Amino acid sequence: MTTATPAAKTRILLADDHALVRRGVRLILDSEPDLTVVAEAGDGAEAIERARAERPDLAILDIAMPRLTGLQAARELSRLLPEMRILILTMYDSEQYFFEALKSGAAGYVLKSVADRDLVEACRAAMRDEPFLYPGAVTALIRNYLDRARDGDKLPARAITDREEEILKLVAEGHTSKEIADLLLISAKTVERHRANLLQKLGLRDRLELTRYAIRAGLIEP
Which intervals hold domain HTH luxR-type (predicted)? Predict the structure, then answer.
């Protein structure tokens, strides 16, 4: 009788300059069957060193750290290890920090005050290549969108075909390549080719940036 091979755990790097915070967050993560902390760091520069050595699947970075901040580390890690997912963990419920986190390549922004409620789901969302937004962040995105519209900012010029637009919308809505293929009666390989073309044409890197583009282009609601 063969036994099922257990699913691989998501390997996590945790960076925060307070050892007590790291201990508490580690307890939350290590108690989950699909998550494990494999490395810790006390500042942004050490986070980069540990990430290069351990090659984790996911990095959770505090914003306010010595030497390099979490945002600075996120920008560098996005360049060095583009396959690795990044979450920002912070005490600051700040629109400025939230938008900077998105620009730095983070897939989500989690408040320490509700980490016990949100962090595990944020980790899983990041590994599904989906953005994780807490309620205040959603409000900030909507306000930013409305401010841009009020100020007359132009929407992006149309640079994609009708089919690519169709696929962009479905990707932004969270559908998998297989689901999109089934909906549009094409192969999953064709969907992946269109998706790659979209990223190249629009100068974007991942699903999160495609979603932001789709919101700005009016394809989906924020």
Answer: 153-218
